[in-house]
Write a structure and sequence with these properties.
The protein is built from 20 helices and no strands. It has 407 residues and is an all-alpha fold.
Length: 407
C-alpha cells in the first residue's frame, strides 16, 4: 500500500458501512439463533417447530426480495446515504417491535418488515465504499466491510445466550438506532453527486430486463451466490435437525452453529478478498471457493465423526467455503455503471437471500421422499453447478474503473 492508504481505507464512510453491516447481520441471523426458544415462547409445539421455522424464514427472505428492489432503486435515484440510513431505521424499529409479538402471525409480519429494512444496508454500503475508495483499495475496503459486518452473528449468539429472545431483539434494534447518530460524519459518493448533474436515467430497474447483455450480467451475478444462502439458509439454520439425522449424540445449539459458521465466513471473506488482490482476479478466487464449498457440504452431510466438536468444525468450514460473499457483492457492483450500480448491488445479494424461499420449498419436497440428508445433497449440488456455469459467463472486473454509466 502507498503512504496514506490506511487512512483512506479506515475513513468514516468505510467504518460506518462496516458497522451498519454488523448490525444488519446481527438482526438478520438473530431469527435463526432464537428460532426455537422464540417459537416455543409463542406456544408452538415441538412437532411444528421445523415447519413454522421454515415459514418465518421464507417470510423474512420474501421481505428481503421486496426491499432489495425498493432500496436499490432509491440508492440510484436519491443517493447511497439515504438508503444506508433509511434501511437501518426501518429494520431497527421492526426488531424492537419484534420483541413484543404474542402470535406467529405477528412474528411473520414483523419479520417481513424487518426483511425489507435489512435489504438496503449491504448494497448501499458496498456501493458507497466502492465509489469513495481508489481502485487499488476497493477490494480491501469491501473485504473490511464484510469481515467486520459478519461478526454481528457472533454478538447475536452471545446476546441470545445471556438474554431472553425478546431482549435480544430489543438490543439489535437499539444498536441500529445508535448507529444512526454517525450519519452526520458520512459524506456522499462523489461519483453519484457528479452523476446527479447529468441528464442520465438513474435506478431504472426495468432496464436490467430490456437488454439481453444487462439481463445476462444481472442473472449471473445472482446465480454465483446460490451456494452461499443454501448453506446459511438450510444447512446452518436447521443444524439441530441435521445433527440429529447424522447421529450426533448431544444436542446442537443453533446459535453456536451460526456463530461458528460466521466466524468461518469472516476468515473466508478476509482470505478471498486478500487473495483476489494478490492474484488480481475476482473470478479465479470465487471459482476456488465454490469448489471448497462443495467439499465442505459433503463433509457436513457425511462426517467421519458424529461428535459435537466435529459438527461445529464443519459449520466453520462451511462458513469459510462460502466466504466469497464480499467478492460476490463487489463483482455485482463492478459489473454495472454508476446509474445502475446501487440498484444491482442492493438487489443481487437480496435476491440471493430470497432464493432461500424456492430452495426451502425444493428441500421440503425432496426430504419428504428421500430424507433430509439426500434432499439437502441434491439441492446443494444443484446450487454449486449453477454457480459454476454463471461464473464462467461473467467478465473479470478486477481493477475496472467504475466512473461510467449504462446506456
Amino acid at each position: 500500500m502507498k503512504e496514506g492508504d490506511l487512512k483512506k481505507l479506515f475513513s468514516i464512510p468505510v467504518i460506518v458501512a462496516a458497522l451498519g453491516y454488523f448490525v444488519d447481520i446481527y438482526d438478520l441471523l438473530l431469527f435463526s439463533i432464537v428460532r426455537i426458544p422464540s417459537l416455543r415462547g409463542l406456544g408452538v409445539p415441538d412437532a411444528a417447530l421445523f415447519d413454522q421455522g421454515e415459514f418465518l424464514l421464507r417470510v423474512q427472505m420474501g421481505g428481503l426480495l421486496v426491499g432489495g428492489i425498493i432500496w436499490g432503486i432509491m440508492g440510484d435515484k436519491r443517493g447511497r446515504l439515504s438508503v444506508l440510513f433509511g434501511s437501518i431505521l426501518l429494520y431497527s424499529l421492526a426488531n424492537i417491535a419484534n420483541g413484543f409479538v404474542t402470535t406467529v402471525d405477528q412474528y411473520a409480519w414483523l419479520r417481513f418488515i424487518a426483511g425489507i429494512g435489512l435489504a438496503g444496508e449491504l448494497g448501499a454500503g458496498i456501493t458507497l465504499v466502492s465509489e469513495v475508495l481508489p481502485t487499488r483499495l476497493r477490494g480491501y475496503g469491501t473485504t473490511l466491510v464484510a469481515s467486520v459486518g459478519l461478526l454481528g452473528a457472533v454478538l447475536a449468539n452471545v446476546v441470545a445466550k445471556h438474554f431472553d429472545w425478546q431482549v435480544a431483539y430489543f438490543i439489535g434494534g437499539g444498536l441500529g438506532l445508535l448507529l444512526l447518530l454517525a450519519r452526520v460524519s458520512v459524506f456522499e459518493s462523489g461519483m453519484f453527486l457528479t452523476l446527479k448533474q447529468q441528464t442520465v436515467e438513474r435506478g431504472n430497474f426495468i432496464s436490467l430486463f430490456t437488454s439481453f447483455d444487462r439481463f445476462k450480467r444481472f442473472m449471473n451475478c445472482i446465480l454465483i451466490g446460490l451456494p452461499i444462502w443454501f448453506t446459511i439458509g438450510i444447512l446452518i439454520t436447521f443444524s439441530p435437525e441435521f445433527s440429529q439425522e447424522i447421529g450426533v449424540l448431544n444436542p446442537i445449539v443453533a446459535g453456536d452453529a451460526v456463530m461458528f459458521s460466521y466466524l468461518g465466513l469472516v476468515a473466508g471473506d478476509m482470505s478471498s478478498g486478500l487473495l483476489s488482490q494478490w492474484f488480481r482476479s475476482r473470478k479465479k478466487i470465487v471459482f476456488v471457493f465454490i469448489l471448497l464449498t462443495l467439499g465442505f457440504i459433503l463433509l457436513y452431510l457425511y462426517p467421519p465423526f458424529a461428535t459435537n466438536t466435529f459438527f461445529y468444525f464443519t459449520c466453520f468450514c462451511l462458513g469459510f467455503g462460502v466466504g466469497y460473499w464480499a467478492l460476490f457483492v463487489t463483482i455485482a457492483a463492478e459489473q454495472f455503471g454508476t446509474n445502475l450500480r446501487s440498484t444491482v448491488a442492493t438487489t443481487v445479494p437480496n435476491f440471493i437471500r430470497g432464493t432461500v424461499v424456492p430452495l426451502t420449498f425444493a428441500f421440503k419436497l425432496l426430504r419428504d421422499d428421500t430424507g433430509i440428508i439426500i434432499g439437502a445433497l441434491i439441492v446443494g449440488v444443484a446450487t454449486i453447478l449453477i454457480a459454476l456455469v454463471a461464473l464462467r459467463s461473467l467478465q473479470e472486473t478486477f481493477g475496472r474503473e467504475l466512473n461510467f454509466v449504462e446506456d
